[in-house]
Amino acid sequence: METPLITEEGSSSAYGGGEDGAGNGGRRSKQFHRRSDAIAYGTRYQKAAALVDLAEDGVGIPEEVLNDTTFERAAKFYFIFIRFDFLWSLNLFALVLLNFLEVIFLVILACDALIYALYLSPVSVTFLPFRLAPYIRVAFITLTVRELRMCILTLAGMFGMYLNVLALSLLFLLFASWLAYVTFEDTQQGWTVFTSYGATLYQMFVLFTTSNNPDVWIPAYKNSRWSSLFFVLYVLLAVYFLTNLILAVVYESFKGQLAKQIVEMDSVRKSILEKAFSLIDNYFSDMAVGLSCVAQFNDVAVGSKLRCSV
């Protein structure tokens, strides 16, 4: 069995059996324990092996760096940058720790505001200042964690469809509120509950969530039993039709965005593999030489399931 081009940490072997691209078949190339080192400093076969391993999990060097004309130089600077990744981990730890320390700071702030209001301020303190720091911490963590960024991108892709559904719900609520206000204007319902269009809009919005059902239409029901048909029909349309429609539209939009992301990930994986094969393609053809492909990619990386066949 041939020695893999990229080994695990703590491997006993120090050198591999890969050839360099210049045809020096007898020279043994140095093995690397890190994928980034193989991409930045390895031979073209080791770079190709690392790129195939990169295509498996999709975590590593961005596709834009691979397509750069100065790929090797850009890759070295990129991997120098990610060596400071532990600083980002410390930042995340500090942000999480601040959430626990914030309670103590808020108690101190409340005591300070109370003393200021009792002894120094000529007027009473009627409101608390707007605090932006907690929202900045949430945004910072979201932009730092890769999985959270993918979720935000998925939600951003659904934003247009969500606005359409929200506009439909708002139009239904406005029309139903206007109809209720006109219908019960000269009744006990209009004198006690639907006193204005704004009040009617608010009550119908709460009825949309069934929080005030059936209290909101009790005066109309006492006046006429047939008045309950309007509210029953409204609840049926709002709760059992419109909310299900919103759920179905949002779910379909989510599936569409998820499928789009999967297609983009496959496109990135294909681009990385094309870059890997172009590194070992001596004849600049559409596919690499079969024997060379098998020899160099047989044990590409530890745990990699992607194999190259003749």
From TrEMBL:
<feature type="compositionally biased region" description="Gly residues">
    <location>
        <begin position="15"/>
        <end position="26"/>
    </location>
</feature>
<dbReference type="InterPro" id="IPR044581">
    <property type="entry name" value="TPC1_plant"/>
</dbReference>
<keyword id="KW-1133">Transmembrane helix</keyword>
<feature type="domain" description="Ion transport">
    <location>
        <begin position="70"/>
        <end position="257"/>
    </location>
</feature>
<feature type="region of interest" description="Disordered">
    <location>
        <begin position="1"/>
        <end position="30"/>
    </location>
</feature>
<keyword id="KW-0407">Ion channel</keyword>
<keyword id="KW-0813">Transport</keyword>
<keyword id="KW-0812">Transmembrane</keyword>
<feature type="transmembrane region" description="Helical">
    <location>
        <begin position="191"/>
        <end position="209"/>
    </location>
</feature>
<dbReference type="GO" id="GO:0005774">
    <property type="term" value="C:vacuolar membrane"/>
</dbReference>
<keyword id="KW-0106">Calcium</keyword>
<dbReference type="Pfam" id="PF00520">
    <property type="entry name" value="Ion_trans"/>
</dbReference>
<keyword id="KW-0109">Calcium transport</keyword>
<keyword id="KW-0677">Repeat</keyword>
<dbReference type="GO" id="GO:0000325">
    <property type="term" value="C:plant-type vacuole"/>
</dbReference>
<dbReference type="InterPro" id="IPR005821">
    <property type="entry name" value="Ion_trans_dom"/>
</dbReference>
<keyword id="KW-0107">Calcium channel</keyword>
<feature type="transmembrane region" description="Helical">
    <location>
        <begin position="77"/>
        <end position="98"/>
    </location>
</feature>
<keyword id="KW-0406">Ion transport</keyword>
<dbReference type="GO" id="GO:0005245">
    <property type="term" value="F:voltage-gated calcium channel activity"/>
</dbReference>
<protein>
    <recommendedName>
        <fullName>Ion transport domain-containing protein</fullName>
    </recommendedName>
</protein>
<feature type="transmembrane region" description="Helical">
    <location>
        <begin position="104"/>
        <end position="128"/>
    </location>
</feature>
<feature type="transmembrane region" description="Helical">
    <location>
        <begin position="229"/>
        <end position="251"/>
    </location>
</feature>
<keyword id="KW-0472">Membrane</keyword>
